[in-house]
Amino acid sequence: MIRTVRSSDGTTIAYEQAGTGPVLILVGGALNNRHSTASLVPLLEKSFTVLSYDRRGRGDSTDTPPYAVEREVEDLHAVAAATEGPVHVYGHSSGAILSLEAAAAGLPLKKMAVYEPPYLTTGGEDWQDFVEKIASLAGTGHGGSAVEEFIRHTGADFDPAMMQSPWWPELVSLAPTLPYDLILTGDGGVPADRLADIAAPVLALYGGASADWAAASAIAVASAVQHGLTNAIDGQDHAVASAAIAPILLEFFH
């Protein structure tokens, strides 16, 4: 059943709830909606009340321009406020950055796990030009091109055959939110001063088969927060398998 909450600026945020126990909120990254964690939820719901939500502009959530990181932080606070007491949070990729920003802004938190927040990834590219290019493509009816440019930018191989897949239209529908993920990444630096305000335990995860920036980012995050740990998941890359990460989350959150 789809539930909704109202964020501070009036945006409707849709979420689904499964399981019983302490609350665990899942925060997805770029080109993800609440269904993207469908394979992870069954592995967690016996121990937690799992909340999967559509970030603004995705799925059944609405959007209220102009975009600002602060508005997405308020969205996550609104989802947490629909529950009783502090929550656990797991954020993936740009969802990890969003989760960290929300925690630094005072999200009532028990523990947080983040997987490969994409800090330290912008290199020497003119970042603002790239953000504007993606926004322009997505805003002028070229969502497919925006998705392709974004995937290529991440360093992943883009197979044109994916445009014929049944899930391609859903990716294209998420293209207008790609600038949000890029804005969350900012200049690629780890905001150590803000993260230093996070007092809850934070587990920063990365894949053993991921690019070098992933380990560097996780280590930097764990060093910046007050109580940080790191862990590498052998054989995994940025698209971490649910079966590989679920046991680690269960152990950490318990």
Helix content: 25-40%
Unreliable residue runs: none
Give the overall silhouette.
globular
Kindly name the structural category. Answer: alpha/beta
Radius of gyration (Å) = 17 Å
What is the CATH level 1 assignment of the largest domain?
Answer: Alpha Beta
Q: From the 3D coordinates, which CATH architecture of the largest domain would you assign?
A: 3-Layer(aba) Sandwich
Mean pLDDT: 95
Biggest sheet details: 8 strands, mixed
Number of strands: 8
Biggest sheet: strand arrangement = 1-2-4-3-5-6-7-8
Strand content: 15-25%
Measure the end-to-end span: 27 Å
Succession of helices and strands:
EEEHEHEHEHHHHHEHEH
Task: Describe the fold and architecture.
- The chain is an alpha/beta fold.
- The chain folds into 2 domains: 2-120 and 188-253, Alpha/Beta hydrolase fold, catalytic domain (Rossmann fold), CATH 3.40.50; 127-181, no CATH class.
- The protein contains 10 helices and 8 strands.
- It has an 8-stranded mixed β-sheet with strand order 1-2-4-3-5-6-7-8, sandwiched between helices.
